[in-house]
Q: What sequence folds into this?
């Protein structure tokens, strides 16, 4: 997909500060250090769009990025990082669950998992939650360049079997592999959503 425009629009750290939707939205979720910011930057061809940090858990709150004046990618807070306080993580959980369960313009979600670890308990719980609230999702395997071809094939096959019938996509922010497939899934999800009305 050709990206002609990608820009940060808003951040929301509380339910009250969630911005009104302008377009169909796609949530992007994953544990800390799964490569979420790198994936967003690679998908959009903008190196600094989503701040990439060596400090896991740096994404605070929900970040809204408008793409081509047609859709919005919503970067959810990373989870699974113990250095954040329990109160802070509880606040994020409440905010994320509110967003996922009530946002009418939410067309789908990408659930990221490092291919070397596969979806763990948190990713599986998130997938179950998305199913319970009727949000389509795809499992996006990151860092596929870290495995040799044969290991990648066997690991991906095992993950597909584990999460079936969920869609599983392979990606590498390093090489750009899989970006077209991710955009194809997003476009299909967005096009199945009714158009958003005026603000």
A:
């Amino acid at each position: 997909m050709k990206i002609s425009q990608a820009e940060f629009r808003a951040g929301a750290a509380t339910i009250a500060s969630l911005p009104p939707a302008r377009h169909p939205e796609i949530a992007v979720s994953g544990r800390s250090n799964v490569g979420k910011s790198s994936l967003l930057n690679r998908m959009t061809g903008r190196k600094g769009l989503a701040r990439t940090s060596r400090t896991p858990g740096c994404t605070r709150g929900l970040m809204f990025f408008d793409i081509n004046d047609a859709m919005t990618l919503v970067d959810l807070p990373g989870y699974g990082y113990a250095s954040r306080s329990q109160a802070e993580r509880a606040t994020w959980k409440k905010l994320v669950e509110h967003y996922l369960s009530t946002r009418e313009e939410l067309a789908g979600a990408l659930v990221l998992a490092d291919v070397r670890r596969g979806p763990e308990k948190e990713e599986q719980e998130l997938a179950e939650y998305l199913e319970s609230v009727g949000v389509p999702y795809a499992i996006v395997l990151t860092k596929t360049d870290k495995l040799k071809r044969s290991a990648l094939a066997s690991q991906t096959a095992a993950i597909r079997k584990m999460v079936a019938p969920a869609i599983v996509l392979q990606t590498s922010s390093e090489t750009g592999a899989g970006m077209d497939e991710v955009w194809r899934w997003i476009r299909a999800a967005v096009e199945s959503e009714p158009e958003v009305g005026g603000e």
About this structure: The mean pLDDT is 88. The first helix runs from residue 36 to 44.
